[in-house]
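WARN  no MSA supplied for this record, continuing single-sequence
INFO  ligand: 2-acetamido-2-deoxy-beta-D-glucopyranose
INFO  echoing inputs
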Amino acid sequence: MKALSIPVLLVIFWASLPAGFCDTDPQDVAALQSLMRGWQNFPSSWKASNDPCGAQWDGITCNNGRVTSMRLSSINLEGTISSSIGQLSELVYLDLSSNSRLSGPLPTSIGNLKQLTTLILVGCSFTGGIPQELGNLVQLSFLALNSNKFTGRIPASIGLLTNLFWLDLAQLSGPIPISSTTSPGLDLLIHTKHFHFNKNQLTGTLNGLFSSSMRLEHMIIVTTLFTFIRLFDNNQLSGSIPAELGSITSLQIIRLDRNRFTGAVPTNISNLVNLNGLNFADNQLSGTMPDLSALTKLNAIDLSNNSFDPSVLPAWFLELKTLTSIDIASGGLYGQVPNRIFTLPELQQVILSNNAFNGTLDMTGNISQHLQRVNLLNNRIVEANITQGYNRTLVLVGNPVCLDSEFSSSRFCSIQQDSIIPNVTSITKCGSTSCSSDQSLNPANCGCAYPYMGTIFFRSLLFADLTNNEHFQQLETGLWTELGLQAGSVFLSDISFTSDDYLQVKVRMFPSTGTSFNVSEVTRIGSELSSQAYKPPPGFGPYFFVADPYAHFAGEDDSGKPKISTGAVAGIAVACGLVLTALTSWAIFSFLQKRRTEELSGQTNPFASWGIAQKDRGGAPQLKGARLFSFDELNTCTNNFAENNEIGSGGYGKVYKGILADGTSVAIKRAEYGSKQGALEFKNEIELLSRVHHKNLVSLIGFCYEQGEQMLVYEYVSNGTLRQNLQARGIYLDWKKRLRIALGSARGLAYLHELANPPIIHRDVKSTNILLDDNFKAKVADFGLSKLVADTEKGHVSTQVKGTLGYLDPEYYMTQQLSEKSDVPTCTALALSC
Ligand SMILES: *[C@@H]1O[C@H](CO)[C@@H](O)[C@H](O)[C@H]1NC(C)=O
Ligand SMILES: *[C@@H]1O[C@H](CO)[C@@H](O)[C@H](O)[C@H]1NC(C)=O
Ligand SMILES: *[C@@H]1O[C@H](CO)[C@@H](O)[C@H](O)[C@H]1NC(C)=O
Ligand SMILES: *[C@@H]1O[C@H](CO)[C@@H](O)[C@H](O)[C@H]1NC(C)=O
Ligand SMILES: *[C@@H]1O[C@H](CO)[C@@H](O)[C@H](O)[C@H]1NC(C)=O
Ligand SMILES: *[C@@H]1O[C@H](CO)[C@@H](O)[C@H](O)[C@H]1NC(C)=O
Ligand SMILES: *[C@@H]1O[C@H](CO)[C@@H](O)[C@H](O)[C@H]1NC(C)=O
Ligand SMILES: *[C@@H]1O[C@H](CO)[C@@H](O)[C@H](O)[C@H]1NC(C)=O
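INFO  complex generated
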């Protein structure tokens, strides 16, 4: 009974002991395993070892045994995030972007990741609210949650993230929180350089959001769904653009378009002397058009679709020499279109449709070389003098000049197709090579390969001429050089504007060698693009990247196929081998042949007449005892030993789950050639296990010894190993259950020691050898190393030391004398190690 009480005590301490022999902190191992359980398609390197840091799991980086970074962009992860993620307390970097089948809510335990500086979840399908616990992540500098399915409000606690550099939220509703005496607000984010709120349904005003100490570079509050609703209470004018905005003089890009701002544009806007892009389109702004003459760095300006007072085109426009794009459609403008506007040296686009310009259009003289498009649809122009040879777009449809019989046949009086935007790199040099549908031509070598593909969305372009290849050539070159790809191995296509005025560019990136990227390459590239580590050439402005799923990873033999989520792991974590000496194999073989003959004769259905006559008696008796399985039978029931039936592995080989013809679930331990243990252990285990039956011992159902295979067929224990449960369930495995498990394990061992005949010493008691069933009942497994206690030498046997290093009884190790006491696990043996 001494042997019974000591394990009880020790098992209770099991969870709290430090790591023994692996590089990774057990808490982190447990958290990762719990995440794995909720996921499909995690990298196969994660299955090969229980030691993420030591074995270098793809996408995981460690420091001193703690997981510090998870970069898992674009690898088809599917499932939800387990709340155990909160245990990765040293995590600094978390990028799960572009896994569109990651769904469910963001667990609030994410607020425990106090070291986190980067959180990127762009392009997934997370739902629910953004947890206010994010406000606990005081180190956070990069927070990108856009392109998900989040709902609800922006938590005010985000305002506590004073180290935030990049804030990118999407699809939320409610007001932007502003601080008060009782609550934080986003106005506290004075170090944040990027505010991106796209595709939201925010309401309220921007009043109070800006302070003079803010360091905003990009302020992007855009899109059709973002509606600042005017509040009509107490005559307070709200819903106007706050004058304080004028104090953030470092601002480079501001988009407030597609909202419902009202009132006049504050004059303080003219303090924003560093502004490159200004877009106030599609609001209800009124009053006189603001004087922006001081904004001498302005490239793109869009004031279209507002309610400004009718006026002539303000003269200050003609002084902004850096302008590339002017859009004042529906701007209430009249008078002559000044000729000088077309001479602005950088000008690419002028959109003045739906105004009241009258008189003569004079497009002669030194007009901009870059001018690509002039749109004067629906004005009152009666005459036009256009420079000879102007061959770009000019739309005069809807002007009286087009009723003029001479002019009406001109191409300017019909809607002209915008020029086709060419692909940047021509692949015509590759001739007529064609690739299978999921491959593409790599322009670098004209070979077919699986590209890593996605879409880059540029949120505020500072140029307008998409037919000018120069920009996109720079973009292409920049991508392959900065992302460390082979020269020429990037292909851009499908360049167009979205309805929100974002420029989208489809990008294909090709592997430098072979036809596929491996997991670490894809996560690396995805991470550089999602974290803005890649900087596009000037003019493209801030962007975000959403990748298409990559399904052809090099080195992942089962790529594309969903892997099991390891939810239910029947554990048989034993060693078994195939090193056969000619002698032992002959001995075993003859033993088994004899056994097999017996079994086969048994298989010629001794109960053939039973079922026919006694249908209502529930069929033939189900006899217990190890039976012989044919290779074909096991092959069929595991679906050719399919990888997704794999439920465990070890030095001996792999364990598969199978379902027998009668519906029984089994765990099949299939020895690998070259395993350390041999035929002797195989026979040993069959003999032992077929003899012992106890509710706390895993029972053997049968075996297979055919076609060079050694397989053991066990009952399937559904809830995994004790170790997995301690690690994954952590606190959910309460003390009562732990005590029951400890008692159960001790009963199983006591049976082996005291009641089995001859007595059996397990020799390898450890948490991975204790399995749990549905009711958390313990079942001791792995008798491969068991030793019958011979009657020799006063109850102990002298033998070659076997077992798992680190779990060995030190006394046994030193003396090589084995006794029942050797099964009383030492502290080290019970420690949570790998
Ligand atoms: C904005 O400009 C107006 C007038 O120039 C000035 O009275 C006001 O103080 C300015 N507000 C801010 C916040 O700079
Ligand atoms: C301005 O209004 C017109 C007509 O309603 C619309 O076609 C156009 O898309 C609007 N422009 C913007 C920038 O929203
Ligand atoms: C036309 O404009 C370009 C660019 O501003 C300038 O370099 C050139 O001298 C101008 N030519 C004439 C004839 O004014
Ligand atoms: C253009 O329209 C304005 C305002 O309607 C008017 O004062 C002006 O005379 C018109 N000019 C021409 C040339 O028709
Ligand atoms: C068009 O402009 C050119 C150059 O300014 C001028 O010489 C010519 O007379 C104009 N033609 C008409 C019909 O106004
Ligand atoms: C337009 O004309 C310029 C110079 O005359 C020429 O270089 C260019 O190719 C032409 N573009 C088109 C689209 O015809
Ligand atoms: C650009 O590339 C895409 C994708 O290969 C192709 O479908 C499209 O036809 C190309 N466009 C042009 C103008 O060559
Ligand atoms: C992945 O591919 C890159 C580039 O081909 C190579 O340097 C790296 O060693 C590969 N990593 C693995 C784990 O195979």
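Residues 582-603 form the longest helix (22 residues).
INFO  checksum written, moving to next record
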